[in-house]
Amino acid sequence: METLYIVIPCYNEEEMLPLTAKALIEKMDALIAEKRISPDSKVMFVDDGSKDKTWELIDRLHRSIPMFTGLKLSRNRGHQNALLAGLMHAKEYADIVVSMDADLQDDINAIDGFLDKRAEGCDIVYGVRSSRKKDTAFKRGTARGYYKLLSKMGVEITYDHADYRLMSRRALNALEQYKEVNLFLRGLVPMLGFKSDTVEYVRNERQAGESKYPLKKMISFAIEGITSLSVKPIRFITALGLIVFFVSILMLIYFLIIWAMGRTVAGWTTTVVSVWALGGLQLLAIGVIGEYIGKIYLETKHRPTFLIEVDLEKEDREKKAG
After folding, report:
1. How far apart are CA 221 and CA 183, in angstroms?
2. Residue 115's closest CA among 254, 277, 3?
3. Mean pLDDT, contiguous 10-residue spans, the chain (322 residues)
4. In what order do the strands lie in the sheet with 124-129?
5. CATH number of this structure's domain 4-212+306-321, picked from the four choices 3.90.550.10, 1.10.8.50, 3.40.50.1260, 1.10.10.10
6. Is beta strand 124-129 parallel, antiparallel or unpaired with respect to 161-168?
7. Predicted pLDDT at 200
8. What is the value of pTM for the model shown?
9. CB 289 within 8 A of CB 236
10. Distance CA 166, CA 122 (A)
11. Quick check: 4 and 69 in contact, CB under 8 A?
12. Which residues contact 33 (CB under 8 A, 6 or more apart)?
């Protein structure tokens, strides 16, 4: 039997955490009773610099139920960095790791399917939503459009998959070799190339608390995904620049012909539209290029993606060793 760790990033989840803990302890006990996972399996909560009582609850759960453990980051680093912190720490103790959100919208019963695929030799198993009927038409349309856009940009990504997945220790060791500061795990994991499969599940409604991904964060995350994994936006600007240059040559020839025919007419509209159009294009191009330069700036600094303030698992093992 393999040891399973479930890694759950948490940010201000004091309302949701008791419900999540109750559901997971029941699921883990059932899997252990069925001898599908080792009794040493655990749930690891990662507190991403929460401002409420999330860490107090994690610490209390850990002291009362040994199956729960936790990491406390020194400050808020964002969902992807918190998730990476949990994955990199869990792989030191686990054979397989499942990552999921704290809101229980990911159906925990899909873990059974993950384990079935793992038994078939998969190193990576993606949890994929079977339907988006519960989403608003706007969210459903933008999500589909975003996945298609990523594919057009050359990014390998699994449709309708977030961060609910199983990864083996071998896959996690490979992921550790990717040193990006600008993280987009949904795009990085498929790049590993190990045997993978999908398990469909129905996404549930959040039972308590608020979503940590409002529209502004979702847009920022979407831009991060594109610019972290593809250089096609810059190539698009290059192509657009060539097209504009070609059109300007045609316009120059046209105006020379008009001038030679003596039909020169002052056109304020043409002038103003041209200035605004080219000015807007230049600003857009500078903005896109600046986004990439900013990422290069952050990558060259080699700053740590996260810092651990408290590691409950390490503390427990040191006490036992002492």
Report:
1. 10
2. 3
3. 95 92 95 95 95 94 94 91 94 95 91 96 92 66 71 73 92 90 82 92 73 60 67 74 72 70 62 68 77 74 80 84 72
4. 196-201, 124-129, 161-168, 96-99, 4-10, 42-47, 68-73, 308-311
5. 3.90.550.10
6. antiparallel
7. 93
8. 0.76
9. no
10. 9
11. no
12. none
Please provide the distance, in angstroms rounded to a whole number, between the alpha carbons at the two ends of the chain: 28
Label residues 125-158 b or e (16+ Cβ within 10 Å = b): bbbbbeeeeeeeeeeeebbeebbeebeebebebb
DSSP H stretches of helix in the chain:
17-33, 54-64, 79-90, 110-119, 137-152, 169-175, 185-188, 215-229, 232-260, 268-301, 312-321
Tell me which residue has tokens 């200035």: 275
| Dist. CA 225–CA 217, nearest whole Å | 12
Kindly write down the DSSP assignment for every residue of 162-228, as one continuous string.
EEEEEEEHHHHHHHTT---SS--HHHHGGGG---EEEEEEPPPPP-SS--S--HHHHHHHHHHHHHH
Kindly list the domain boundaries of the chain, sorted by start residue: 4-212+306-321, 232-301
CA distance 109 to 132: 18
Q: Dig out the tokens for 117 from the structure.
A: 């695929």
Taking the mean position of all CA atoms in its chain, how far away is CA 14? 22
Nearest to residue 127, comparing CAs of 11, 44, 3, 6?
Answer: 6
Alpha-carbon distance of 155 to 230, in angstroms, equals 7
**CA dihedral sign of residues 27, 33, 34, 35:** positive
Query: Is the CA virtual torsion 317, 319, 320, 322 positive or negative?
Result: positive
Query: Tokens for 183?
Result: 């993280």
Q: In the numeric block, which tokens belong to residue 301?
A: 């600094």
Q: Which residue has the tokens 């060793």?
A: 321
